[in-house]
Amino acid sequence: MKDYLSKKGRIFDIQRFSVHDGPGIRTIVFLKGCPLRCRWCCNPESQSYEFQEMTLGGKTKTVGRDVTVEEVIKEVELDRVYYKRSGGGMTLSGGESLAQPEFAPALLEAAKDRSINTAMESTGYADFDIIKKYLPHLDLYLMDIKHINSEKHKAFTGRENGLILENARRIAASGTKLIIRTPVIPTFNATKEEIRDIAKFASSLPGVTEMHILPYHRIGMDKYAGLNREYTLKEIEPPSAELMQELLAVVNSFGLRGQVGG
């Protein structure tokens, strides 16, 4: 048995038969823990690494469970036939996979050893020495670039963006396939000027040809109440389909292959 199979990590969900977060039919593994506190986060139960109690629909459940790589990869392998037919595979999400730098790379390595396509949805907020542990086992890096202005980025996420932008440059230079994704959040970045700045940056990255813009939604709002937390964007309306098409045209104008949704 390979040593990596016994490595332990903390997850809060495994979602099978997903058609988002990478090509084809995928299994999404959601990891606990994230250094950012994005105001719009639809998985607030992912932010803390600690176990939590969350109440939804009058039922209280414990969020988080400790697992080994072997336990997770066995579940991922259940849908191997669908991955082969669709070009799908396993995607790590969260939370932030970079926050578990022993478990997450081992999980990616286990998937690659089984010829399963790998992807990771990530903020890119970590020391690059940590990120380098992931790249040899990663087919696709889906990286959030939320804003170019560091002050505004910090106001809405709790962190400045200098490290994120520098890591985007270094990931692109490594030759890893990189797709830039931007959540479109009214009052934060839902203007042509702000999306233009992000698209300009994305188009400057070597090898980057795609940028996905993801419209804000309120799907996770009830979770905040279930965790006894305040949802601070409750007055914000999702962007209109017309605005999303206008922003998509901005993305395309930089020679990128734009897409609404991811």
Write structural notes for this entry.
This protein has 262 residues and is an alpha/beta fold. The chain contains nine helices and eleven strands. Helix 1 runs parallel beside helix 3 (103-113) and helix 7 runs parallel beside helix 9.
- The strands making up the biggest β-sheet line up spatially as 5-1-2-6-7-8-9-10-11
Number of helices: 9
- Dominant shape: globular
Low-confidence stretches: none
Element string (H = helix, E = strand)? EEEEEHHEHEHEHHEHEHHE
Roughly how much helix do the residues carry, as a percent range? 25-40%
Determine the strand fraction and express it as a percent band: 15-25%
DSSP summary, beta strand count: 11
**Structural class given helices, strands, pairing?**
alpha/beta
Task: Report the major sheet.
Answer: 9 strands, mixed
Rounded Rg:
18 Å
What separation lies between the terminal Cα atoms? 36 Å
Q: Overall pLDDT, averaged?
A: 97
Quick description:
With 262 residues, the protein is of the alpha/beta class. It is built from 9 helices and 11 strands.
